[in-house]
Amino acid sequence: MGVLDGKVAIVTGAGQGLGRVEALELARHGASVVVNDLGTRADGTGADEGPAQSVVQEIEAAGGKAVTAFGDVADWDAAASIVRKAVDTFGDLNIMVNNAGFSRDGMIVKMTEDQFDSVIRVHVKGHFQMIKHTMDFWRTKSKESGGEPLYGRLISTASDAFLMGNLGQPNYAAAKAAITHLTLSAAREVQRFGATANVILPRARTRMTDSGPWAAIFEKPEEGFDTFSPEHIGPLVSWLASPHAHNVSGNLIQVWGKHVRVYAPPQPALDHENDEPWTLENLNGVLGPFFEGKQPIEDSYTLPMA
Ligand SMILES: NC(=O)c1ccc[n+]([C@@H]2O[C@H](COP(=O)([O-])OP(=O)(O)OC[C@H]3O[C@@H](n4cnc5c(N)ncnc54)[C@H](O)[C@@H]3O)[C@@H](O)[C@H]2O)c1
After folding, report:
1. Which of 59, 229, 276, 306 has the most neighbouring CB atoms within 10 Å?
2. Which atom of ligand 1 is nearest to the CA of 14?
3. Domain containing 166 — which CATH number?
4. Is residue 295 included in any domain, yes or no?
């Protein structure tokens, strides 16, 4: 008996890295899994059906149920066909894990239009389309059942880049911020179906993080616990997908190693109502002292660990 027996999941970008781990984990708990992947290079170029096929083989070899859905999540028709594949093959769709994506880092002064557009497209449009087509299916299902609550989970993948506005990742940071708020908006909307939507912020060593300025942080230790092994991300996805998380919606949850963090919504650091309408001078009287002695944002590569 698995906690996800009878449930049907899609994991996008599940041919390797975090998506592979998440697909294997969902299948291990009993879900039937649609393994989507375009099989791109690390920069999002190219296409290869091999990675998705090999993850399906891994799931089947472990006794699970899976099928491939090759295709680009940011292509409207391809995204619709991934959802259709779940319903046609397994008869339902309960768990939509949006994970596919890539980064093309660079400073703003050097960033090309294509570098910006491609990263926004895969993450923001990709997440939107998979959520949209999933919700279309849930809407029809809900209507057909006379409004009975259904079992639905949307899980999106953001990043520290959203929290921090990472140096050298302006396109990726913007995309992850957009994903976060797209998902929070979806969380409000899917309540009417009895479904939930949450955002995960993983930290793990994959080809996305094993080179460049972040690589040293994610390096595998010579010995001892491997804090940034991607394996540590799977359980959060299966927990959010499980009945345990039926009342968890509209949250940002970060996981790495043996850590888990739930982020509170943004809180005001200063909340002042003035007696008079604002002028530059009286605003300076309030904001000047508040910012006195505070340092500007750091211009380095950082990852708050504690
Ligand atoms: N690795 C980390 O520490 C980390 C941190 C925060 C967020 N993330 C996010 O996690 C997700 C997975 O990243 P990863 O680190 O496993 O990278 P990865 O490169 O190992 O895996 C990404 C997968 O997405 C697939 N993909 C790319 N474009 C696609 C498209 N248009 N349609 C379908 N599939 C596509 C690739 O083929 C690849 O298999 C990404 O959204 C990434 O931004 C990763």
Report:
1. 59
2. 39
3. 3.40.50.720
4. no
| Active-site annotation holds for 238 | no
CB 73 within 8 A of CB 130: yes
Distance (angstroms) between ligand 1 centre and the Cα of 197 equals 19
**Residue for token digits 């994903």?**
179
Residues of the chain with pLDDT under 70: 306
- Residue 236: which domain range? 8-263
Give pLDDT, residue 185. Answer: 98
Tokens of 74: 């940011």
CA 298 to centroid of ligand 1, rounded, Å: 27
pTM exceeding 0.70: yes
Tell me if 17 CB under 6 Å of ligand 1. Answer: yes
How many domains are there within the chain?
A: 1
Residue nearest to atom 21 of ligand 1 (CA): 17
Cβ-proximal residues to 19 (8 Å cutoff; 6+ apart), any chain: 11, 12, 13, 37, 97, 99, 100
- Tell me if 207 CB under 6 Å of ligand 1: yes
d(CA 210, CA 259): 20
Q: Does 75 reside within a domain?
A: yes
Evaluate whether residue 277 is within a structural domain: no
pLDDT value at residue 306: 65
Specify the pLDDT at position 304.
76
